[in-house]
Amino acid sequence: VKELLKQLRNGDLLLVGARPGQGKTSFALELAIHSMKHGNQALFFTLEYNPTEFLNLFKSIGEDPENFKDTFTFDASDTINADYITSQLSAKPAGTIAVIDYLQLLDQKRENPELEVQVRVLKDFAKKHNHIIVFISQIDRSYDASTNNPPTLEDVRLPNPLDLTLFDKACFIHDGEIQVSDIA
Question: Would you call 175 helix, strand, or coil by DSSP?
Answer without folding.
Answer: coil
